[in-house]
Structure formats: C-alpha cells, structure tokens
Amino acid sequence: MIDEDKLFEAALIIKNSNYIVVFSGAGISTESGIDDFRSPGGLWERYDPNIYASYQYFLQDPSLFWKMHKEVEDLVGTAEPNQSHLTIAELERMGKVKAVITQNIDMLHQKAGSGKNGAKIYQLHGEYGKLHCIKCNMEFKYDEIDTKNVEYPVCECSGYIKPKVILFGESLPHGVLEGAMNECTNADCLIVVGSSLLVSPANFMPSIAKQYGAKLIFINRENTIMDDLADVFLKGSAGEIFTQLLKIIKLNIKV
Length: 255
Ligand code: APR
Description:
Layout: H1 4-15, E1 20-24, H2 43-46, H3 49-52, H4 55-60, H5 62-78, H6 83-93, E2 97-102, H7 108-112, E3 120-123, E4 126-133, E5 139-141, E6 161-165, H8 176-186, E7 189-193, H9 205-211, E8 215-220, E9 232-235, H10 238-250
Parallel strand pairs: 1-2, 1-7, 2-3, 7-8, 8-9
Antiparallel strand pairs: 4-5, 4-6
The chain binds adenosine-5-diphosphoribose (APR).
Residues 25-27, 30-31, 36-39, 42, 49, 103, 125, 194-196, 198-199, 220-222, 237-238 line the site of adenosine-5-diphosphoribose.
C-alpha cells in the first residue's frame, strides 16, 4: 500500500516545480517485462557482470557478452513503455519535465514520447538498436547484420561489432555525462525512479541536484543506499505510484 501522505507531498512538489529532471534505472522498465539487474531473478543473478558485461572480457572474447545479449535483445527490441514512461512524457507535455537522464538502453522513454516536447534525453549507458565496429567505427543497425547465426558478429575489417551500450570499464559517451550533470544543477526537482544507485558516475546525479537546491523524490520498490537524500521516498511499484501522482496532479486535488 502506497503511503497517501507521501503521495500528496510528492504531488505538491511536482505541482510547484517547473524544471523537473527525471533520473531512471532498470526498475522503471520491469513493468514492461524487462528484468532489472539486482533484484532477485535479475540479469546479474544469471550472468556475472564482471565477465559478461566487462569491456576487457569483450576485447578478449566477445562470445560471452553476445551469449547474454542474445537473451535480452529481442525482448528489449519489442518491449512497450509502461505507465511510468507515459506519465513522464505527460509531465513533459505539461511543461514540467525538462530532461530525462536514464541508465537504461531500452529507448522506452523515447517510445513513450519523451523528448517530443522539448525535454532533453541523456542515455548514460548508451542505447539499444545501434552497433559499431570497435576497430574501424563503422556503424550498423540490427537488421544490417547477422547476430543470430554467428557466435558474434565481425566487421569486414575483421574488427568486433558491439552494440553501442556501455560495458563496465568503458567510458561513457562523450558529453553525455557532463550534460546530465548540468541538468541536475538546473533542476528544482529530481525524480529518481527504479535505480539501486550503486553504479557511478551515474549515481552522482542525486547529490548534485540536492547540492543545487532541488527537491528529491525517490520512487523505488526497495530502499537504496541514498535514501537520506530524498525529500520524499515513495516505496512501491513505479507504475502504480506514477498513476496515482498524475491523478492527484491532474484532478488538481487540493494538495
Ligand atoms: N517499481 C519500482 N522500483 C522497481 C521496480 C518497479 N516496478 N522494479 C525494480 N525496481 C527497483 C529495484 O528494487 C532496484 O532497487 O529498481 C532498482 C533497480 O536496480 P538495478 O537492477 O541495480 O538497476 P540500475 O540501478 O539501473 O543499475 C544501474 O548497473 O549493471 C549496471 O549498466 C547497468 O545501467 C545499469 C546500472
């Protein structure tokens, strides 16, 4: 059961904010059928990230990464946005959300309409759908290469082809981190949703926003290591919480 008082408190913060930045993690997409990483049954329970999601391992043997990736690539490619993604896009249409910073590669924020009404989107860990050769940097789309009948795809120049997602030990896309951090200095409200906040430098965002005076709303199924930064912590399903929040805000219920 979601704490009603906290729902109203969060709705009031949202109603009084005009530069809301959203920071999302894998937990926002579990209700779209995509497992997160660290919940029970999550991806890192099945694949050791120090091997399967390590850039160094990829350079030595891409087959490990591709074995894991093949399990998720169809799912990520066909998943639909859920109520959380849709509400965030609605808050952008209402002129409230000005930026979305996501650790996710599933493009579900864009599929929900985020970015279509002026908000900037920062994909800290890259995005599904684009691949490149790590030797000659040639870019590819999934339908331009065979990823099904080979252990791993190789470029004509003999370089390994890799999705443009950030593995452990790989640097973040140039300029994206700086842009995201800058948004956090502008925010009057940061909504942190579906993240364990365990991975840096992505997890710098909440403390930067706090330092520059933003109100922080956390929406998460479990407690996180940074709960003390939250002005309001809404514990539960992100989809249900966003649905309730939008109802309160839209019905203009006296909050
Ligand atoms: N509603 C609310 N919270 C949820 C839901 C849900 N429906 N489903 C999961 N969660 C919460 C979990 O309780 C957990 O705290 O979302 C969080 C997801 O945490 P992680 O699995 O650690 O995902 P994330 O924080 O995005 O991981 C960051 O780590 O492995 C790397 O590159 C990977 O981008 C990823 C980064």
